[in-house]
């Protein structure tokens, strides 16, 4: 069965060059994949023609669909909703809404993507706003889903429980973990610590059977590898993620200059650079991996605005895996089952 | 004029060995410093006798005061307040309260230190709870004060403005910055983003003259060097700080194993190790620098529980500089002046 993904090829700082190249890589990697590229036809064709080694077999699985406008990076979600429906983002999302594609990937304006996704695709029962989640690299080579990353700047206990359930389902389905370890982010590990929402969510999750809930972790717990899903409100998650990106950039710079300063050796510096660049990419998880909008009736993956072709490739791969695992269907079904348990108990 | 600092020598995971060694280093560094060590006399004496190169001139500025108990790491603040007043922490804080020392440094239980500080020393007018702040290293070799780090898990707009003012005064007085750049941490830089508290604080700070307020920064702004003070509630600050510590640890590990894997060379690994360890220390700011409790009538610096002698030395140095700059007096005076302006306008 083919997997059809609609790509907003105009989003992202690097323009169609990166999205087109990322698409070609994904087509090479997944033989069942079909990509629909939405954007200015002329630009997309130019980007395609500039590619080296185009395999015609792969190009047969790529279609271009012209869109006459692009959602501006600074556009407000409200004006995007009122505005024209012929943007590459809206058109790509409509493919998912209408069942002509199983997933959408965009590197455009996050607020607009969120608003258009809610309006065109809709959320599963009981979820008012999707949560944004990405896989953070951990010690020992693992990964940890952090959510929410900014869609919900405030979250009461019930919302935090929703995030926990959605993250757990994601890690179980998409990463094939048998029993993902789930934790709530807090300022300490004792039950008395934190805000009322976090304490109440802790009580609710502790009572819930069928979830491997591990209680509270502090911020460092995101990276230790001790849990697979860490839940917090979108303000905290966004601050933590962006601070981590900032720190990773600074650290890599310092490591590089430390090496160059200490051995004066440009050779060591030159040898180190590619390894450090790889590390920097890995530690810039949103840019690198893409972030899922969880809780929609369809699959939408946000690629970082400054993602290069590799970043796009990873975002498309994530969307592909979510389609393959029928994530939204499981999410809707399992959330319903869980909620009935919470209500009964 | 001598600067007298009371040290809770029993706090911290490494016990008196680290606190005593850190104290001796501080006495070597600051000729006006006098240290009062509070703890089990026998343990303190043993730690002192184990020191190499004890200079009798420096030891003359060190006094030992016996305390018969220690605040347990897991003790609840409420029980510490009700409990015995003969702990090393309570006795050291009482020195400040009674004017027999100008600052207290402790690596003990943060909640207990906060509760005992409020109760014994008291807060300056208008500040109900102190904020915790530490200096985070930034790109370009600078530093940025982040506050609050966990004393106030929730903060309304007025509290955020207090934090901004206290951080600004700290950076101006203690770091001698002429006009520290202050920002609010948010999930975006537009005025419409974030929680109600953050948006309201933004309006209040924008109207305030005499403060170099730069608006919102996102999490990465803590590390870029673009601002000197970043303000957020204690939940967010704590999550960001601990996530940063966790990420720094993971990154340093990965850098090390990347180097070792790529050149197979143990020599490069061995050469890199001290430089990497230095970096790790620098990027573990609380452990390294100590954190100030801002808004008290006296000076209290929290040293990290797992701080070694160098960490203690830095915490004592911070306390020394705060004494030297008469921080609490300026804080009380300037907060009063600012508040009258806010009320008038």
From TrEMBL, chains A, B:
Keyword rRNA-binding: no
A cellular component annotation (GO) from this entry: cytoplasm
Family matches, as NCBIfam families: plsX
Oligomeric and partner information: Homodimer. Probably interacts with PlsY.
Name this protein carries in UniProt: Phosphate acyltransferase
Keywords associated with the record: Acyltransferase, Cytoplasm, Lipid biosynthesis, Lipid metabolism, Phospholipid biosynthesis, Phospholipid metabolism, Transferase
Broad class of where this protein is predominantly found: cytoplasm
Similarity annotation: Belongs to the PlsX family.
Catalyzed reactions per annotation: a fatty acyl-[ACP] + phosphate = an acyl phosphate + holo-[ACP]
InterPro entries membership: FA_synthesis, Phospholipid_synth_PlsX-like
GO biological process, one term: fatty acid biosynthetic process
């Amino acid at each position: 069965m083919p997997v059809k993904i609609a790509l907003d090829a105009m989003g992202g700082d690097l323009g169609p060059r990166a999205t087109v190249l990322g698409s070609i890589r994904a087509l090479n990697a997944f033989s069942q994949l079909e990509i629909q590229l939405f954007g200015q036809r002329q630009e997309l064709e130019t980007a395609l023609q500039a590619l080296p080694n185009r395999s015609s077999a792969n190009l047969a699985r790529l279609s271009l669909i012209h869109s006459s406008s692009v959602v501006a990076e600074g556009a407000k979600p409200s004006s995007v909703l009122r505005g024209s429906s012929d943007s590459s983002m809206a058109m790509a999302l409509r493919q998912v809404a209408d069942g002509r594609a199983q997933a959408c990937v965009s590197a455009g304006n996050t607020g607009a993507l969120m608003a258009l996704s809610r309006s065109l695709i809709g959320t599963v029962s009981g979820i008012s706003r999707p949560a944004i989640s990405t896989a953070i690299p951990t010690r020992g080579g693992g990964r940890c889903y952090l959510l929410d990353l900014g869609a919900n700047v405030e979250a009461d206990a019930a919302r935090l429980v929703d995030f926990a359930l959605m993250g757990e389902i994601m890690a179980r389905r998409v990463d094939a973990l048998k029993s993902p370890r789930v934790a709530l982010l807090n300022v300490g590990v004792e039950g008395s610590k934190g805000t009322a929402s976090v304490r109440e969510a802790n009580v609710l999750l502790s009572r819930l059977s069928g979830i491997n809930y591990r209680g509270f972790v502090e911020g460092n717990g995101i990276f230790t590898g001790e849990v697979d899903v860490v839940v917090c409100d979108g303000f905290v998650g966004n601050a933590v993620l962006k601070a981590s990106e900032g720190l990773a950039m600074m650290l890599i710079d310092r490591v590089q200059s430390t090496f160059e300063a200490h051995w004066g050796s440009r050779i060591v510096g030159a040898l180190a650079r590619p390894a450090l660049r790889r590390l920097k990419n890995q530690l810039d998880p949103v840019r690198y991996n893409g972030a899922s909008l969880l809780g929609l009736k369809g699959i939408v993956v946000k690629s970082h605005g400054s993602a290069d072709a590799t970043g796009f490739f990873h975002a498309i791969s994530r969307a592909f895996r979510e389609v393959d695992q029928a994530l939204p269907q499981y999410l809707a079904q399992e959330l319903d089952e869980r909620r009935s348990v919470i209500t009964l108990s």
